[in-house]
Amino acid sequence: MLSIYCLIAAALPAWRNLPRPGEQLENILRAGLRAPDHGTLQPWRFFIIADDGRERFSQLLEKGAREAARMRRE
């Protein structure tokens, strides 16, 4: 799961080097945990990917997309 920060950072390259909003992000995640799920009652899981992990995660997504495309062609 991408955090709000990651979504913004992907959309706005100028934001990529800003410090992570620790307390603000924590408040966002706490609010998300309380969001209704319309009776499904499924647990939420949040993953915060920061620093070098973002590059590694990006590489894994790209690798997975290439593999999925290759499998569709076969």
Question: Which short descriptors sum up this protein?
Answer:
mainly alpha; Protein ydjA; oxidoreductase activity; Nitroreductase-like; Nitroreductase; EC 1.-.-.-
Summarize the structure.
1% of the residues are buried. By secondary structure, the chain is an all-alpha fold.
Separation, N- and C-terminal Cα atoms: 29 Å
From the helix content, strand content and strand pairing, which structural class follows?
mainly alpha
Range of strand content: under 5%
| Morphology | flat
Q: Spans with pLDDT under 50 lasting ≥5 residues?
A: none
Helical percent range?
55-70%
Using DSSP, what is the number of strands? 0
What is the tally of helical segments? 3
SSE string, helix = H, strand = E? HHH
- Average pLDDT confidence is 74
**What count of domains describes the coordinates?**
1
Largest sheet: none
Radius of gyration: 16 Å
How would you explain this protein's 3D organization?
- By secondary structure, this protein is mainly α.
- It has one domain (4-73).
- It contains three helices and no strands.
- It has helices at residues 4-11, 22-33, 52-73.
- The longest helix has 22 residues, at 52-73.
- The radius of gyration is 16 Å and the shape is flat.
- The two termini are 29 Å apart.
- The mean pLDDT is 74.
SSE topology sketch:
Blueprint: H1 4-11, H2 22-33, H3 52-73
GO molecular function, one term: oxidoreductase activity
Protein name: Protein ydjA
Keywords: Oxidoreductase
